[in-house]
Give the backbone structure.
Amino acid sequence: MCFKRRIEIKSLKQTKIMKKIIKGVWLSPYLPKISLKMKLTTLFLILSLVRIQASTYSQNTKLTLNVNNTSVEQLFNKIESVSEYRFLFESSLIDLDRKVSLNVEKKKITEILEKVFKGTDIAYTINDRQILLVKKKEQVIPIVTNTVVKSVVDQDVISVSGVVKDENNMPMPGLGVVVKGTSVSTSTDMDGNFKFNSIASNATLVFSYIGYKDQVVEVKNRSVINISMQVDVSELNEVIVNYGYGKVKKADMTGATASITSKELSKIPVTSAAEALKGRLPGVNVTSADGEPGASIRIRVRGGTSISQNNDPLFIVDGFIVGNIDNIPVNDIASIDVLKDAAATAIYGAQGSNGVIVVTTKTPVAGKVTVSYNNYFQFNQLPKDRKYDVLDPYEFVLANYEFAALQGTTQVESFEKYFGKYDDLELYKQKKATDWQDKLFGGSRLSQSHNLSIGGGNEMTKVNLSLTNNKDEGLLSGSGLERTVINFKMNQQVFKNLKADFSARITNTVIDGAGTSANAQLSIKDAVQTRPVNGIADELDIDPSQVAGDNDFEQFIQSLVSPSELVKQDWRKRTTNQYVFSAGLTWSLSKNLDAKSTITTSRDYSEQLRFYGPLTGESYNNGGSLPLGERTIGEAQFYRVVNTINYRKTWNDFKLDVLVGQDISSATGKSNFLRAEDFRLSVTPEELFANMQFGRVDRIDSGENTPFNRKSLFGRFDFQLFDKYIWTLTARADESSKFRGSNKLGIFPSLAFAWKINKENFMKNVDFVDDLKLRISYGQTGNDGVSTEASQFLFNGTTLRGPGFGNFDNLYYTPSSSVLYNPNIKWESTATSNFGLDFALFRSRLSGSFDYYKNETRDLLYQSAIPNNTGFDKQYQNVGSTSNRGFELALNAIIVDSDDFNFSINANIGRNDFRIDALDGTQDLFAKSNWASTDLKNVNDFYLKVGGKVGDFYGFETDGFYSTADFDSYNATTGRYVLKSGVPNSGALVGNTNIRPGFMKIKDLNGDGIVNDDDRKVLGNATPDFQGGLGFNFSYKGFDLSTFFDYQVGNEVYNTGKIQYNQFRRITYGNLLTTMSSDNRFTYLDVDGQYTGVAGSIVTDLDQLAAMNEGKTMWSHGSFGVAQALITNFGIEDGSFLRLNNVTLGYSLPKKLISKIGLSQFRLFATGRNLHIWTKYSGYDPDVNSQTRDPLTPGVDYSSFPKNRNYTLGLNATF
Amino acid sequence: MQHFKMITKYLDMKTNYILAIFAFLLLASCQKDFLDPDSISTFDNNYIYSNVDDARKGVNAIYSSFQQDAFRSRLSNNFCGNTDIERQSGWSSTADRYQIWDLNALDSNGDLNVVWSTAYRAIRDANIAIEGMQASGNLESSDPSVKRTFNQLLGECYVMRAYWYSMLAFYFGDVPYVTQAPVAGQNFYIPKSNRNEILTKEIQNIIDVEERMLWADQIPYGIEQINREYALGMIARISLQRGGYYLTPELNMVRDSDYLDYYQIAKDYSQKLMTLKDRALPTDFKQIFMNECKFIAPVNQEILWEVPFSKGSGDVGWNIGITVIGGTTSKHDYGAGNNYMGMPPTYYLSFDGKDKRRDVTCGLYQYNADFVQEIIPNANNISQGKWSRAFLTDPPGKQSAKGTGINWPMMRYADVILMYAEAENELNGPTIDAQNALKRVRQRAFDPTDWITNVDGYVAQVSTSKSAFFDAIVDERAWEFGGEMIRKYELIRWGIYSEKMKETVDGLKKLADDAFNGTGTGPDYLYWKLDDKGNFIVLNPNTKLAAAPDATWKRQSFLLQLHNNTTTYQEWITKDYANYYLTGPQPGVARYIFPIPAISIANSQGTLKNDGYKFK
């Protein structure tokens, strides 16, 4: 029947804009209008034939046609075959069989159509590639159902009509026209025509359309009013912010936000969205624990507010709260919005206190099916210039010999057993060193990523499916990450007023390797300090298990284990399958009222396999030195139901947006643990876990988590006056199952105000300002980030180290948490004030925003240290208060904007001070990083003071080393040196009371003649003065080049490696850094016998020592006890850096060329990441934070996995 | 108006639906426990002490502290040296355990920290269990079997708590006395209490509960479970600690004036056990410990309570016991083990040649990689011969090391008998009762043919005075309990720690001089071989022998090893014990008290200090 029914969909301009706001709520009024015009089936049919493209098809395209006496239909077909034009019409309107003849050469389509339809009743309009045909005298039918005629009796009533055209003189359909001061409105038809049948002759009409400036026209008794709309430059660049249960134009936002879109994200080839944020957004600090694949990435919005466990911002992916965004493929992300102040986050109440990160994944777009494919291949390596330099074999044996000789003959004998007599040590000059850093992570690793996405559909049903696979090889042998994500999204218009959304995300993640931190058996110490040669063992074949009868058997065995063997035996594989499903219904009850209900569920199934080979400490200590395996199977469940009602109404001078809602969520899970031991020595990890029955079951544990439930009610009231003043009032009440009784309830209000200054009359003449908005907000949020059992005293059953009645481990009940419960804990609350300014200048060539903020957190939920004579180390308490204050500035400048060449700069800078405002009654408090446990003298290495900043490193100040002049004499009988009177002895601090010249000397800061714990001071602070990023983007024709730097200035890093690797703490026959070479350090060794007559003996004479050590800069490595570490200013380093984070060069093939093979985009790119770092820091990387668990101990570099440098090649293709 | 009506109509129609949905969701979320969820994997104290089975598991928590390294390697072994009968060198390293052996531990010492925190964890678990049981009402249950079990469990709690306080007093002196389960709002900042006040209360607690406890033969796990015998023995043992000497912060060894009251208690309660539950001492001394290595735990015999280690747990046979050289290339499947604590030759030679306990106690041999016995290479490393992984019934594997599962004796019946003898002597002098008790223990050590000389003759000889009898008790306990690592506590409470250490050094020096000068009578060389059954035998265990009678005997330097050509004596002789009597902060006093761990001081917010004892 319908041979060829076609209908126009959108105009050129609209297509562009529609795409832009497609996810906006503003879209909905237009959609039904189109559907009214046709039957559903027709629409499906048509859409399958219609191509909608974002790019323009020039109207200047010229055609050559030569037809004689053909039907109109055949002519259409002909035109469609030689061009991209497509005809849209109702077939009943047009006489398709009419015969025409046409002979044109290189004529524009308008001229051709003019000829064809001359003298008919058909009118045409051209919108990009679409040619819409309609009857000339067709009656304009107001599409909007609620157009009503206002009866105004006391005024003249006239009929007004007209055409609305855009800046290119093209008609604009679907444009809203409102009679100012009334509820009378209509919208334009396909030809841009509008008509009011009876309105007051003195009425004022307001024409508005997204992306265009409003036109306000007085009727003044005219019956025809033609309007030309002007593009609103500032609005075209408009960003839509996802701000919690809704979206808003950034221009209308009262809160402080920062956003990044897919356009920028696509230039950062990384596996994780979190990592992509690094340095990009002001006030958002992204640090990774270290460079290990799958390492936890810490995101802090404005420094984090709490000193309790959890300072992570709230992560929301497509409206669903998730634990992290590591699993979201970067290619699937449309935008990431970071909500920073209470105005923006208060709607999330409890969870919003640390900021909210809203990730929106790409939404399907109606139109032809698009297929895009993105990939990259990445080569990773350890930056050679960041390696630690260690002693060569000869220097190594010399240092160890000297160390042994200082201790006594027993130690020398032992040394000789492994490395030979002193006189033979010269031989080590010939020996080749094993470079353990190279062996362990020196190789070049390959990572790759593939992303395929298919999207399309029609106005009723839109579907997007993407498949992503990432495979990263870690620098450490055997470590790696593979992640596969399937992301499916569907939007379905069920009825006119009912929309359904469905999404599913299925993720499979496999992480290999046990890393170097947490409970790993290997640490960076093994790579740096493992001896470069094995001494005599290199020549002989020593079986470590054969050597017995030695008290330090344990240490000896470990000292012979090669780190590269150890890493193979220290095996871990973590697999997680995550299923996230979300379904939502949006019901447009009326033009102004929407009700929305969303249910989201997620299930995580995880399996962690941990294998300990016979060389590992775990097997040695607890596994009878045989391979053993632990398998943990976990399941996490989560559901969340959100119901909201949203009422929006626009009057002439004011706009109202009211949202009320209810939110219920519940998280729980369970786990199953199995440990089996006594496998045969040759078993491989894979074999073991495939056949756990071959071992002996050592322990089984299973448990269900205590659910974490929360119930909330919230409301938001947005009021906008004269499009200049905006108020947002938010309130949320949360009830959390983590607290008891009335403490469950927390109420969090906020109030915000924004003033669009540029809309004021006095700004009208200030041409260079496109946008200027002032924002002020104050609000409260809360935090319940404690464990689900923190307020109850509960017990679990376990057999771990249970009594061995009857020779097996018996069950016992033990407290469910190692932190003592506290039934009185309550919500931690944060009050945030924010002052912000958004601006766009010079036709938006320069835009940006500035924010100053202060937030105060009270009743901190903190694991307070309590005396361990309670049987616990810590207890949850609401203690003290902290505050963050700082500023953020983000700038974006478009320097050159021409057809061929573009150049833009973006920069951001931020400063955040995290201060302690009150403590639990005390004026100061210590915190400890625990990197060296109790080996660290005094354990406490962080100092917190009321009014001080968080992150003060606390310790001693070195005074170099004791010179020979500090001593009176040497007593050969007792073997002790006698210090001059008045020279304080710091021997006890370094764990070696038998003090010698050349030992590390600690300043007696308080001058009491004794060096002890009272001589400590703040050595530095982990907080940077400011940090941020700087990017340059160029594009020239098909080429694009972007570079990105990130930086941090003014912070110190607590480099535990510098302490550890310059002494022999808990390592036998270990190596040292070259800072400890015999040229640098104080030595006692009479290398050639010139002082004592016996080569290799220890010089004790003060004068001789002075002569030997002239010009030496370092203390002796023998200063320290073998189980002693000391924090001094030596280990505190300037952590400022400037990193060339990213350089990307891309080339997109010309569209003309690729369109022939059906491609709409084909881009090749090469990226280098972490290319260079300018820093004085001596460790692997100054951007480090190892002790992530305690917010009070930032800036520690302990056994951090080095960050890699990588080179990427990739392509993006769209079909 | 029309417009408005339309909306209203819409709303009328749809609000009903919406309200219905909301109502449903609210109902769904308002399930009674939505905001008070719990997990079926967690339990509260009311539940745990509501029934016998779970209460058992609650009390088991206290036992789990014995499975921690803090006890396995530390308290049961490394912490207990050095004494006149057990030694290790503490001066050769500054690592944690060396600091302990050298009596020079810093407050940063990790071993001290782990012992301190494990002790208080055990005390916490005991307090939780005691409060749980007291609140449950089951101690007075009308069901006699429930009541019986609960009271027995309560006794276990008090006995174990007393054990840990006894240890804390020995290692740290005055400590915080915690007797309540931790509750929010409670004052956790508890200052030190006088150690004797703590012990007094802990003794009384066991006395109060002891009669409601059950004998080993009445309970499911026998001597692996704390029982009434052990409770009675612990009353006596802790009373002797309470009535004994201790080190004051001013570094004086003193005892409280009421000390005799506690000797009386020790006498009464050791006697009570000997009256109510007397048993013959098993005649085979070796078998007592062999049972442990064979996983046999007989009731009503020698051992009153032993720490139950499961297979895969426990360090006996790993760092306690006869050396076994193992590993992948060894020709046996027993794995490797040796001894941290060695026995000095002075102790070995102090035994009477006929004392059967010597060769059980002093391991002069080891197992080589072929599982063949051979003599130990070092005279200073005679092992705790009572145990060995080589005695295990099932070899644990070539590569095996720790976790042998061999139980560790906490008190033997012979100890109770000797405590009785000691207390009686202190109160009334060497009475017949005291003498008879001593005789009972000695009779097992000698063949009946030797009793006339070595038992009756010997006891008569040492019973001439209270002090002679006391000295005999000191000696007897050394011979009886060598390697069981309780000597240190006795030397402390007798107030003779430093004196005994000097005596040991002098003794060793004399042995070295005599051997070097050829003037001694002891075995400068030992001559050994394996008998027909492959068992290690020594020809001249305590005598000097110039040459072997035939070539089957191999010669090994023994006492001659004590001499060093450059320093006269081996370094270990002069250095191992130096801090105990000579170079410590107070010469003549062994500063056996250690500083409270730094972390505990820091977290006490000033309540605790490491004052006194001349700590650095």
Q: What stands out?
A: Chain B touches chain A through 112 residues (CB under 8 Å). Chain B is about 45% helix and 5% strand. Residues 4-8 of chain B have pLDDT under 50 and may be disordered.
